[in-house]
Amino acid sequence: MNVIRTLFSFLLFLTSLLCEAGDYFRLEGAVFHTSYHIIYEGTCDYTDSIERLFADVDNSLSMFNERSVLARVNSNDRKVRVNEHVRNVMTNGWSVSADTDGAFDMTVGPLVNLWGFGFRKKEDVTQCMVDSVRRFVGYHSVRLDKRGRVRKKDKRTLLDASSIAKGYACDVVGRWLWSKGVTNYLVEIGGEIALKGVNPGGKPWTVAVNTPEEDSLSVNRHYQDVLRLTAGGVATSGNYRNFYYKDGIRYAHTIDPRTGYPASQDVLSATVVASDCMTADAYATAFMVLGLECSLAVLERHPDIHAYFILSPLPGSTAYRVVYSPSLRNFLSSSH
Question: CA–CA separation, 53 vs 185, rounded Å?
Fold first, then answer.
């Protein structure tokens, strides 16, 4: 056994010698019902390792994978204990929930399903139905005990990590690359990004902020602005892709956990820059619920979090309005 371990360590050492700096490797594919693109400095193909990381996250946080830890929690499996991935996401998620007065809430799943954005078909939603579901929605009704078990006041409560999991997965891959000595990388999953260092041209990574045109097919490639970054996470939440019309009324996928209804704010999209993508992902969702004024109040408490908001045009105008936190100016490609 010691000989095998020694040989394996030697092979890892040889592999690290082959991964010389200077070149950039590019990976792309499908994961979590979306696409991913990864660029990192080096010549080693880490596809297999990264796909295993994706599988670990999916087996931990997916609501659609019946064998995942989160799915077992939702089915009230008494034997399940949370792993590192679930613990990290719950801890961070609960912190953002408390900071945003419940605008971000991982227990919103039943309401998401009620409005037809989960894994169930749309229904004719009534106030009575909303009130009924809200009885078991609320992050205060869930806790994690010392033995790693999720305790729910109501067994019908569901945990939904979809608004934070892609950002977390970006961080997981980014940290893994860093552990391999990769100091320049960009990891993008479904529009959420974790990055470090510089691009192949030796300059800061460029991240486009899309124009929020109604785009349910995700074919829009127009952008409102460009950010230039060398570290951190970027996430965008918007109501211009995942929506539907019913009886002439537009219903967007961002649900306000506090009211039980789709959020109705003047913010069309919120792009957040934070120290990690998981945090950016959660706050981007919260800001879509809170609206501009309340979001700016949150940002005042967190100088290390930056945001770029695109707002609906004023009456009589077709031009989108843009508001961003003052500190974000340092990341914009051009001065405003």
Answer: 16
